[in-house]
Amino acid sequence: MLLLTAALPAAAQLTPIPWHPKVSSPAQAAKPGAKGGPRKGAPSKTSPKPPPQEALKYHMTFDKLTTLSPGVYVAEGNVRFEKGDMLLTADSVTYDSEKETLWATGRVAVDWGDFTVSGSELHYDMRAGTGDVRDAYGVQRDGDFTVYGPTLRKTGEDWCEMDDGTFTSCTAAVPPWSVRMSRGRFHVDHYAFLNNPRFRVRQAPLLYLPYLIWPIKPDRSTGFLIPEIGSSTTKGFTVNNAFFIAPADWWDDTVYLDWYEKLGWGVGEEFRYVPSENAYGWFHGYYIKQKTDDRKRWDFTWTHLQKLRKGWTFTADIN
Questions:
Q1: Residues spanned by the domain of 245
Q2: What CA–CA distance (Å, rounded) separates 307 from 273?
Q3: Which tens digit of pLDDT belongs to each residue from 165-213?
Q4: Which of 50, 175, 186, 287 has the most CB atoms around it within 10 Å of its CB?
Q5: What is the pTM for the complete model shown?
Q6: What gap in Å lies between CA 201 and CA 170, rounded to an integer?
Q7: Residue 151 near residue 163 (C-beta atoms within 8 A)
Q8: At residue 233, what are phi and psi to the nearest 5 degrees?
Q9: 281 within some domain
Q10: Is residue 256 part of a domain?
């Protein structure tokens, strides 16, 4: 295995090639001291400055390296490329050090911060921070969401998008549910914006929406919760859906819309609050109109606990 570490243009090449500034006229290209040319030792006023050294730093290991042209290399075999917060591994990587572009093929895996994408091929512009991965399978490192499809496009520092893909925030090895979408835009550690999402349980379609915003934050945030799927002898096949609302740290609210094969639809709400370190409470209500006998059933509970002075505690429990 070979090791290639770069900090400067000359060090970035196995065969050092000196950097030559571009010139705008034959006169400026004349030899130092020649008539009409620049004086020896005089700085060129038209020559561009070399790129910042920090932007050129990278670290690469490989089994074999081929130079296609000055500044363009093909690394093959167990390639590992690191630059900034990006880590790329692949069977083959073509790197253009002047344009700062990468083309990787064969068992591609790239980390962009907390987001990891694997696929068969990668094109990436490191200056623009944009590119695409073919046959992509992307996972947020802390497990908040997974997305896969034909091509994933990285469009910004924390943004990516995919057409005709599949999305899920379930962390199971075989997710029991997923969302098919015509297009998805993902702001990593923030929200997913899904066009024409179709919810599926296993492979069976369940629900269609024209548009959906789904939280993919590491901490709690407003959005749909993972549907719960089940079955029983009294209720039949069940699907429990919930929308979680968290506008503040001290209170939240959850709204339920559930479907029971033998009973019908049920709606509910759970409200929780902690106004101070000495007080907390919750409210829970649920209503269902059974389709079997047309009976209306409901449940209502409110509980509040609060510590008072001198060891007293106030408790309210209504149901």
A1: 220-319
A2: 15
A3: 999 988 777 888 899 999 999 998 888 999 999 988 878 888 888 998 8
A4: 186
A5: 0.61
A6: 12
A7: yes
A8: -70, -30
A9: yes
A10: yes
